[in-house]
DNA sequence: TTCCTATTAGAAAACATTTGCAATAAACCC
DNA sequence: GGGTTTATTGCAAATGTTTTCTAATAGGAA
């Protein structure tokens, strides 16, 4: 959970024999500028980029999102919508979690400092190198509780 | 996170105007008998049932898994394999979480009592009715750390 | 038992994501 | 800077998972 700049991203990519491309730089930038609490699907990102005149192909987007998630730059979120969402992976004061209604997918973010500590300790104990840790709560929101019937 | 029997499942389904079918009963039973720590994908379950002579169609399996997850009977796990996995949702002493290697998908289960408490408190505070809460840790396992290069 | 309608199986469709390939262009070396 | 190597891109096609449609079936309530 480091904070990345184009330069540090390039350094880390090159270290592994990979390359910093304009596409990767642009995508990193989009996520860095994204308002706190927003997250994008691959399709969202595709349209976002198209709209701002920097068209990047969907396959490159998919490849880049996966790459950046595996590097720990992005968090991959499963919010129950049938496709993944991504957001920048930020350290301590911004680190947060999601409470999701299983019926309407309404999602609330919340923070809790002890979770990151637990995740760090657990990964360390097993010798894993931590990239991200997220508590996902599946629940039924107040309005869906009232609308009892529909699944 | 209640413990279900065929009878209590029937009661809860009927309450909502739904039905207990042999298929639903069989599927519940499979998950109840599953060794602790195992989880099944839709396809896994399909073949498991086929093998034991109780063929159930894939579409019914998908519908039932979704239904039971939304009822809180099953937990839906995203273990990075491109499809969901399911396991029975059990209360306190069996409640656990997953540490996943983002490269090879090797998964380790771990327990931590405070997480469920945090989840319960958070859901309650927002007026949500809790179904499940899982901490997912994404990390790189020791052997994938050594094999530095491949993404 | 009868009726109503939720549920099923099977096939087809929809959707998200990955892959193959030829063209392009970063990074490294001189 | 120019040349070489090969990672990366875009596009199209393929893959894999999950959902949806429909007619037939069978739970549940009276």
From TrEMBL, chains A, B:
Q: Give the keywords, sorted.
A: DNA-binding, Repressor, Transcription, Transcription regulation, Zinc
Query: So what family is this one in?
Result: Belongs to the Fur family.
Designated name of the protein = Transcriptional repressor
Pfam families in the cross-refs: FUR
The yes or no answer to whether the keyword Repressor is present is: yes
Q: Which SUPFAM superfamilies match?
A: Winged helix' DNA-binding domain (SSF46785)
